[in-house]
Structure formats: structure tokens, C-alpha cells
Known about the structure:
By secondary structure, this protein is of the alpha/beta class.
Amino acid sequence: MTRILHLSDLHFGTENPAVTEALLRLGEELQPSLYLLSGDITQRARRSQFAAARAFVERLQVPVLAVPGNHDLPLFNLPARLLNPYGNYRRAFGSQLEPVLETDQLLVACVNTTRAARHKNGEVSAVQIRRVEQQLRQARSAQLRIVMMHHPVRAVEETDVDNLLIGRDQAVPAWVDAGMDLLLAGHIHLPYQVLLGGSHPERRAWAIQAGTGISERVRGAIPNSVNVIEYSPGTPRRCRLTRWDHAADQGRFIPWQSIELALGP
């Protein structure tokens, strides 16, 4: 079985130390084979914040795949934003902004939806759509096929519609038809899952949103949370999604909801 811990919006610079330690303990308990980090790793893209994030990742002692979020580009340092917007990110997380990971049971294709010219909104280009589509079509039947980015493609609250990815109406059906199973994202600090459809009725995929993992910038009464995805090849194809919430009174993350997601053929 492949177990993945999906984190998002850690916002180092606003992290809660107690929640951070609780998340590390959860990782030790669950022993995931992979961490996926869907952006907004830092609050203001400062070198010190990325250094703290890098130190956290090294404590996980498990492979981590990450993409940048809008907060991972300098906001107030305009020369850096224009000339080297990903400088601090690359220093901490490597040169690849759109890494790809492939194992016998897993394909993860990452998409950088941030743009230096945009303050917070995300965008996907036609070139990115075609690249990911090709990667998905080359996947093997036993693989869980994941696309990860920072910005959401579906909203469950009206107030979040303005945060949706520009280009989603072209990307989502193309990727679902190409075989995508899960689309992981963050950005709005609201955890949920939504069924996605393509142009063919037999194809289906799921948009899975993560809350903020350790930041004090929680959304309303929603606590810090992370997602755990478990997958074993089989027929029919399916995976289990469990949302873990931080329980402040217990000082640990506890399972809040666990559901089985049916996947397409």
C-alpha cells in the first residue's frame, strides 16, 4: 500500500510550534511513504522562512514533493519578484518548480500555477495543460495518478470563486480524460473533496483540497488539518482519503473523516 501525507499552506513565519511538533509526531505514527506539499510553504518568501521550512522537511526523513504557492514569491521586494521570484524557493527546495515522481503504484505530476505578475491568483498555460496530459496518458494501469498544484479548481463556498485557477475549464476535462485520479491543491485553507468530470462519462477524478497544516492563519473555526491518502492497486480502483484535524485540547492530530473514493477505469 502507498500512504501519502498531503500538506498545504504551512506559511512558515506564522507557524504554531505546538501544531508543528504534533504534525511531526503524526508522521512518525503513520509512516507515510511520501509527503506532498501544495504550496504557500512560507508567509513572505524570506530566506529565514524557507530555512525553517527546509529544517522541518529534513525532520520528516521521507521524500517530499513540493510546488510553490503565491506566498512563496516575494511580495514587498519588487526587484526580487521581477528578476528572481523563485530564488529563495529554489535555494530551499531545489531548481525544479514542477517535479514529477513515478513509482510502481504512483504517478505525481506537479504544476506551478504561480505567476510573478499576479498577486495571488493562479494560472495554468496551454503548454502546462498539454505536458501534464501527456504524462497522464503514459501512466500505467496500476498507478494512482495525481496532479498537484497550489490553486483550487472548484469551490464549495461562493466567497472562494475568485480564488479559482485561471485556465481550469480547459485543464480539468483534458486531465480527467487523460486519466487523472486526484487533483491536490490548497490556497484557501478549507479542506474538502469534489468530484470532477471530463468529456467522457466513464471518466472521473477528485479535487482534494487541504487546509492549513501548521499556520496560525486558520480559516474561521476550522482547525489545522492535513490529508492522508492510501492506495493499493485493485479492481475496482479506489483509494481512501482521511482528513486529520489538530485537536488543541489533546495536543495531537486526530482523524476527523475517512471516506473511500471511487476512481475511474
